[in-house]
Design goal:
Shape: globular
Radius of gyration: 19 Å
Distance between the termini: 64 Å
Oligomer: single chain
């Protein structure tokens, strides 16, 4: 059981750093997209810096964290008695579905990362702000599932995060209007 707790601890540490990387990379995407609107030479200076920051974050923190979190998760699920029991429970099936969505989200971020590294900005800063909520929703769903260990009650937590996301988006729109108003002065 002691080995299991070490594996679980390492899994949790790398899940946290994986999410930190996902949250921050999308924030860098926002800055990168907005830098594209700046005049020269400011645009080139900012974009070069953001590309470097994205590269380091993505390959030094985010990808390694995703891989290590996965390795420790597989170890827990397939090589411990507790994990084998969890694999038979419905809440774990739902959690694994959300983890699959997280991998898809990560891969889409990788695609966007590659585009931005090649100076292809296909989305706006506003798009990336909304895109960042995807990881937040997955995080809330997974945490509620793991803590409650119930395949149904997690829905209340996800509904709560959707409502929270709507409030954040309304606040964002208000902030944007205030910012635009102040720029016009």
């Amino acid at each position: 059981m002691e080995l299991y707790n070490y594996i679980k601890s390492l899994h949790l540490i790398f899940v946290i750093t994986w999410f930190a990387g996902l949250f921050y990379i999308v924030r860098l995407f926002v800055y990168h997209a907005e830098a594209k609107l700046k005049p020269q030479p400011e645009q080139d200076i900012l974009i070069k810096q953001y590309q470097l920051m994205q590269y380091r974050l993505w390959y030094i923190i985010t990808w390694p964290s995703a891989v290590l979190a996965s390795i420790f998760a597989f170890w827990m699920l397939f090589f411990t008695e507790v994990g084998k029991v969890w694999l038979t429970q419905p809440w774990m099936h739902v959690k694994l579905a959300f983890v699959f969505l997280l991998y898809l989200y990560h891969l889409k971020c990788h695609q966007i990362f590659k585009q931005l590294q090649n100076n292809e900005v296909k989305h706006s800063g506003n798009f990336f702000r909304i895109w960042n909520e995807g990881a937040t929703i997955i995080l809330f769903a997974v945490v509620f599932l793991v803590i409650l260990k119930n395949a149904i009650n997690w829905i209340y937590g996800v509904i709560g995060i959707f409502v929270f996301s709507i409030v954040i988006m309304i606040g964002f729109k208000l902030y944007k209007k205030i910012r635009e108003k102040n720029q016009n002065r």
